[in-house]
Design brief:
The protein has 358 residues and is mainly beta. It is 1% helix and 65% strand. The strands form six sheets. It has a 15-stranded antiparallel sheet that branches. A two-stranded antiparallel ribbon has the order 6-7. It has a two-stranded antiparallel ribbon with strand order 10-11. The two termini are 39 Å apart.
């Protein structure tokens, strides 16, 4: 991989032109990216360790270029900031090193455009200092890249058995929209509360995949389609995107002195909503693809500058309620008719000792 990208970005205080625009800033940036990718692959497959199914190699080069940019306005009033911006980015194309169809040895770039507005502010409620940050965003994807099975029947080979591999395909369009916020409150000089929340909504607008799997695949039409057909997968829930996420943390500063060091304790609860893990199958065709929601309680006590030394000691515990939940699904039901899952770590208690050499 070889990449170079000259860019320019500048900030302009519009208050220089007129006092009525004081505090309003304009940010503009542009980047020109050139990505060159070279790939060499050698692929061999044997059935039962004896019968050759695939024995091929290929070398390929691709060159991708893109102009990306950002443009934004922000307005600052005292300790409050309001902003809005538009950004354009891209993910380079590449080489699918285990593709077997020559048409799929390479794939094209993916593009994304993001729109965001938000605010950041520091203020007091009574005697309590607060910090509130919020953001609304909408992200638009084009030429979305997805990994999927690849197959090829070599016309020079008398065997009708397809060669099987995997490639990356540009399958269509999608959007992701959401809201994020975090709130920090200094309740007491020695006690801080932090709350975060995120809401995400995402959908595929187009998800058309030329299917190369060995077995029939269910798509959004409700029909199982064979290899060589185009699958409509636009009805799939967006992969690994929980709708709701939030956390609540309390941090307490128990002691601070030059002689004994600083002691800080924290307690955190986090919640992650259910999420869909499969990439190619609708829920009715992939048992276990929905991973359940979960909430975790974590805590720690940290003693920095232990008795005035360069040592720091931390006692920590994760998943204190010892909650059991699945964190992945094999998503191979369509191919193997077996399913397996990986589960979370149990309760973990530990100690960490560090030394500051400075």
């Amino acid at each position: 991989k070889e990449s170079y990208a000259p860019f320019f970005q500048g900030n302009l205080d519009l208050g220089h032109f007129t006092d009525s625009l004081a505090g309003l800033n304009l940010t503009l940036g542009v980047r020109y990216t050139v990505d060159k990718t070279f790939g060499r692959a050698s692929i061999q497959q044997l059935a039962a360790g004896l019968i050759p199914l695939v024995d091929k190699s290929f070398t390929t080069r691709i060159r991708n270029t893109a102009i990306t940019y950002t443009a934004g306005l922000d307005y600052k009033i005292d300790e409050n900031l309001i902003y809005g911006k538009i950004s354009r980015g891209y993910k380079t194309g590449g080489v699918a090193t285990i593709a077997v169809n020559p048409a799929n040895y390479t794939y094209e770039p993916e593009y994304v455009t993001n729109y965001e507005i938000g605010q950041k502010s520091d203020f007091t409620l009574g005697e309590i200092p607060l910090r509130l940050n919020t953001a609304l965003y909408y992200t638009d994807y084009a030429d979305l890249q997805k990994a999927a099975p690849d197959s090829f029947v070599d016309p020079a080979n008398p065997s009708p058995v397809p060669q099987l591999g995997q490639a990356v395909f540009n399958v269509g369009k999608a959007w992701v929209a959401g809201f994020e916020m975090d709130l920090t409150a200094q309740i007491l000089p020695s006690l801080m509360l932090v709350a975060t929340y995120g809401y995400t909504k995402a959908e595929y607008e187009e998800y058309d995949l030329l299917y190369g799997g060995a077995t029939a695949q269910l798509d959004c039409s409700g029909e199982a389609k064979e290899r060589g057909n185009v699958l409509d997968l636009s009805c799939l829930p967006f992969q690994t995107t929980p709708e709701h996420q939030y956390s609540i943390s309390a941090r307490s500063f128990l002691m601070g002195s030059d002689e004994y060091g600083d002691i800080e304790a924290s307690l955190t609860y986090t919640f992650v909503d259910e999420q869909y893990s499969a990439q190619l199958s609708p829920p009715e065709g992939e048992p276990g693809a929905w991973l359940p929601s979960f909430g975790l309680v974590n805590a720690s006590v940290t003693w920095n500058r232990f008795f005035g030394s360069a040592l720091s000691l931390q006692l920590y515990g994760s998943n204190l309620a010892n909650k059991e939940y699945r964190i992945s699904n094999s998503n191979q039901w369509n191919l193997t008719y077996f399913r397996s899952s990986i589960y979370s770590e149990p309760r973990v208690l530990g100690m960490q000792l560090s030394y500051d050499w400075q």
